[in-house]
Backbone:
């Protein structure tokens, strides 16, 4: 069954019409990326899926069941976890407490410990800094923590909003490698990126958004060859 | 659900466990607070000045209020400028139930709990409309509630006694002992209730709900993404916060014997908030100290200071000094004090561990400021991209 269906979703910020009927599907085990310029509606799409905006109108189905209109915490509890733009770790909690917060919505001490070990294997830098106050981590470490924290909720779909934002190139590479690794462990990923080249490098399929509409969709390799994409988002002339 | 779990976690005493040894083990880390408690237990036996004990009992009322407001402001990070509203509701609850006004004379002790519960219910009711607001917007709405509630008590003259308020409120009786106007029994009652409240508040803080409050304080968007129900988490913060003001209100009017709307104006909300900020938001023992210090400062120290200044002025023939009245300058001094505090020690006198941690770690590790995400108003500025959440991120209907 399709993991996630976004069907004809419109969304508003107050009176500003931000999404004009966006439709996206994500199959189980895929990495799908949304690319587009600033203000195209990429983050808005993720926020709408995660429940921070209500689709008006539009349908969102998680494994066939409608989730549109549910509050964010309910959507998280159903297995969709958002790693928000700008990381949004809990700065005054320790790294460990941040990770524990990720498992807030579920029980099972053993499983949580297993997941902690798994996250620490994925991000050894976090494992070394469990007792450190999260606000004192570097930007790259904070991004790792944000992803690790989301993994602690055992999501079936991970929504990543601009994970490369503000990171040094070497860290961007590391984050993207990890995204592939997480995906290989069976987590479906919907990735929003401004760094279209990197995003299309890891994704299987992609959607190009412009002013709140999907203007193009294809498998990632073909999108990379596409003239519009090359001109607009990959910076080629 | 969350409420039930929270209640259970407070009540979850080690009932089946072997007491004795375990008790000793558990209180060991609280040695210094217990020592301080002992000093406070002995205080009325040492100081026979009834005025001082009276001031201490009144200070204890404010300690309870500060403990309650700290849940809202310190734990959950919801700036509440109208906390006196709940103090008023708790106070009037007992006044209605135990005075000649309605001819009801319900016993004090159960009413103490009823007042707290009613205040807690109103905490949730008044919290509900503010759920989607944050920061300055929330502060303004709570400020409005803080004004509305006393005004309602003022204008519903037929039901509340209006400006005159309610007089002749019953004084507590414990096993045939009448409290009367002697401050000492009130002092001990308040001390006992503060003790229970501190235990409850600490357990709340360390509960699942407490962790959710902390997450909401740090970042609402992230908290919701972790599966935290923002609605119930915030409502429970308002409700538990208001609960303690109900204790404070009932005790306060029982001791005073009179209640009127002007006892709950904005300066009361402001004073309690100043106590929380002074002691250190989020720090339980900090806000207790903050409340005690500020109350004693305004009632005892400023009065004494005025007298000293008058005697000094008389001795030195300085008419200016004889005319100074520091009690009237209270809010000027508060204001200056708060400015100094924000400049010199923004985390408060006895900061919460987490706030202290981030300040000391930052200094010791020399981290460039750009790498530290938002630490709301405590530790410097954050880069724009990571600053306060853009407003449109809030849930839209």
Residues:
């Amino acid at each position: 069954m399709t993991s996630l269906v976004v069907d004809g979703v419109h969304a508003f910020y107050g009176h500003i019409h931000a999404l004009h009927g966006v439709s996206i599907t994500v199959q189980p085990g895929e990495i799908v990326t949304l690319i587009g310029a600033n203000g195209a509606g990429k983050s808005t799409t993720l926020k709408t899926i995660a429940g921070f905006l209500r689709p008006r109108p539009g349908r969102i189905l998680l494994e066939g069941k409608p989730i549109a209109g549910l509050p964010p915490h309910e959507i998280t509890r159903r297995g969709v976890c958002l790693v928000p733009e700008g990381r949004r770790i809990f700065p005054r909690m320790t790294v460990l407490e941040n990770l524990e917060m990720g498992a807030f919505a579920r029980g099972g001490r053993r499983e949580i410990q297993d997941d902690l070990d798994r996250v620490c294997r994925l991000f050894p830098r976090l494992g070394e800094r469990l007792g450190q106050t999260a606000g004192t981590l570097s930007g790259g470490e904070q991004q790792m923590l944000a992803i690790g924290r989301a993994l602690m909720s055992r999501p079936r779909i991970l929504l990543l909003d601009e994970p490369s934002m503000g990171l040094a190139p070497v860290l961007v590479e590391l984050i993207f490698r990890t995204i592939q690794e997480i995906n290989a462990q069976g987590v479906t990923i919907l990735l929003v990126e401004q760094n279209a080249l990197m995003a299309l490098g890891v994704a299987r399929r992609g959607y190009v958004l412009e002013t709140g509409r999907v203007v193009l969709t294809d498998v990632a390799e073909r999108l990379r060859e596409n003239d519009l994409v090359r001109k607009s988002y990959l910076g080629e002339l | 659900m969350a409420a039930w779990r929270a209640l259970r976690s407070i009540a979850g005493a080690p009932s089946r466990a072997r007491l004795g040894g375990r008790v000793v083990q558990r209180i060991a880390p609280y040695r210094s607070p217990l020592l301080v408690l002992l000093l406070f237990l002995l205080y009325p036996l040492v100081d026979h000045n009834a005025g001082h004990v009276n001031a201490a009992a009144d200070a204890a009322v404010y300690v309870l209020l500060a403990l309650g407001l700290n849940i809202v402001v310190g734990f959950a990070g919801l700036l509440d400028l109208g906390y006196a509203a709940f103090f008023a509701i708790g106070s009037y609850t007992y006044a209605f139930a135990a005075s000649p006004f309605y001819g009801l004379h319900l016993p004090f002790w159960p009413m103490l709990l009823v007042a707290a519960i009613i205040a807690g219910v109103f905490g949730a009711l008044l919290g509900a409309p503010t759920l989607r607001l944050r920061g300055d917007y929330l502060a303004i709405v709570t400020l409005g509630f803080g004004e509305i509630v006393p005004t309602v008590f003022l204008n519903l003259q037929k039901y509340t006694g209006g400006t005159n308020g309610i007089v002749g409120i019953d004084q507590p009786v414990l096993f045939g002992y009448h409290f009367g106007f002697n401050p000492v029994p009130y002092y001990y009652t308040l001390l006992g209730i503060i003790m229970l409240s501190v235990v409850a508040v600490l357990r709340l803080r360390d509960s699942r709900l407490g962790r959710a409050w902390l997450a909401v304080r740090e970042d609402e968007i992230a908290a919701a993404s972790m599966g935290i129900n923002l609605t119930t988490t915030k409502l429970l913060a308002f409700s538990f916060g208001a609960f303690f003001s109900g204790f404070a209100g009932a005790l306060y009017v029982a001791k005073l014997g009179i209640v009127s709307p002007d006892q709950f104006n904005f300066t009361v909300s402001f004073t309690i908030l100043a106590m929380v900020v002074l002691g250190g938001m989020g720090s339980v023992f900090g806000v207790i100290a903050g409340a005690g210090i500020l109350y004693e400062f305004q009632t005892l120290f400023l009065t004494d200071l005025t007298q000293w200044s008058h005697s000094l002025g008389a001795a030195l023939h300085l008419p200016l000094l004889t005319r100074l009245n520091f009690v009237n300058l209270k809010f000027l001094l508060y204001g200056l004090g708060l400015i100094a505090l924000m400049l010199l020690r923004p985390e408060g006198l006895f900061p919460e561990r987490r706030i202290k941690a981030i300040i000391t770690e930052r200094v010791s590790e020399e981290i460039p400021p750009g790498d530290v995400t938002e630490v709301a108003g405590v530790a410097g500025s954050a880069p724009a991209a990571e600053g306060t959440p853009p407003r449109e991120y809030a849930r839209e209907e």
About this structure: The longest strand of chain B covers residues 98-99. The beta strands of chain B are 98-99, 104-105, 166-167, 173-174, 177-178, 258-259. Residues 12-17, 363-397 of chain B have pLDDT under 50 and may be disordered.
